[in-house]
Design a protein that fits this description.
Layout (H helix, E strand, L loop, with lengths): L1 H28 L2 E7 L4 H14 L9 E7 L4 H14 L8 E4 L2 E4 L6 H14 L6 H6 L12 H24 L1
Parallel strand pairs: 1-2
Antiparallel strand pairs: 1-3, 3-4
Helix pairs in contact: 1-6
């Protein structure tokens, strides 16, 4: 009986170590997603896209931090709905394009004189954040995110530990019978 308890405890410690290691590795080598909701033919969207593809993509300080993900919303109803759902989750109105989402930050419109600095600041802030939340990814999965910056990772870890604990209890209950 004591041997089984030791084996189970070692297994639990390995599982927790693995989960903590996975979250740590993710935080250390992640690239965040920058979402550009755009309309085909929109001049401001083209200006934003040109800036992303030419200036920011060639900026060695920032290009290593992010992936650009584009959604055309004028001719794609699914993408338009996604943009509106993301805006609703963020508590803002996305009535125009470009609509840029970086983590839980957003920008509406694009002005070459000011928006690039806002985007760079948001990219760096979200990249360095321990509580980075990809709001677009969460909305696509049907999840809601905590706007106060909480992370879903601790919830997953606690859930896995609870499931393992229940399985251990079931195992010991059957063992006593």
């Amino acid at each position: 009986m004591m041997k089984k308890i030791k084996v189970i405890m070692i297994g639990l410690m390995l599982l927790v170590s693995f989960l903590v290691g996975q979250t740590t590795c993710f935080a250390a080598d992640k690239k965040i997603n920058v979402y550009l909701f755009k309309g085909d033919g929109c001049p401001h969207c083209e200006e934003a896209l040109e800036w992303f593809n030419n200036e920011l993509a060639n900026d060695s300080e920032y290009s290593k931090y992010y992936n650009l993900v584009e959604y055309e919303v004028w001719y794609n109803e699914d993408n338009s709905k996604l943009m509106n759902d993301v805006a609703e989750e963020l508590g803002v109105d996305a009535s125009g394009v470009p609509f840029i989402v970086i983590g839980d930050k957003h920008m509406s419109g694009f002005a070459a004189s000011t928006t690039p600095d806002e985007i760079k600041e948001a990219i760096k802030e979200q990249y360095e954040s321990k509580d980075y939340q990809d709001v677009v990814k969460a909305v696509k999965k049907g999840l809601s995110v905590n706007q106060k910056g909480g992370s879903i990772i601790p919830i997953v870890i606690v859930s896995v530990i609870a499931i393992v604990a229940v399985l251990v209890l079931v195992f010991f209950t059957k063992e006593k019978e």
